[in-house]
Amino acid sequence: MSDTEKPMSQLFTYEHTARRWELLVRIFYSIAIAIVLMVYGFIAGILMIIQWFVILVLGRRSEGLSDFIRGYLEYHVHVLSYTSWMTDKRPGIMPKPAKIFEENAPEQ
Asked: Is there a domain that residue 4 lies in?
């Protein structure tokens, strides 16, 4: 692996073991995540409307608006595995940069 490549990990994988204590912690931790998601999502929703007008008037997208909206979407996907009981690994409450990739399956 070169210096520029960063390790990737799959977010939604099966984990056999689960900690019972984490279920209780998850309730309160998920509430904090939900509050951040609601505020972040509200702002992203307003920016999506603004982006719509930018595209309508200028015929192009604003990079700053796109970056903010993408950040919200990446954070939402990043916390889904924890809030959906897929893993006990806690994500950060505050958003951090994450990149989401789509693997292109070969055509059959």
From this structure: no
User: What is the model's pTM?
Assistant: 0.74
Is 40 contained in some domain? Answer: yes
Q: Domain for residue 27, yes or no?
A: yes
43-93: pLDDT as tens digits: 999 999 999 999 999 999 999 999 999 999 989 988 888 888 777 788 888
How many domains does the structure of the chain reveal? 1
3-class secondary structure for 76-89? HHHHHHHHCCCCCC
Q: Rg of the chain's alpha carbons, rounded to an integer?
A: 17
Sort 4 into a burial class: Cβ within 10 Å, 0-12 / 13-18 / 19+.
exposed
Q: Quote the domain boundaries for residue 63.
A: 21-83
Spatial distance between the Cα atoms of 104 and 93, rounded to a whole number of angstroms: 31
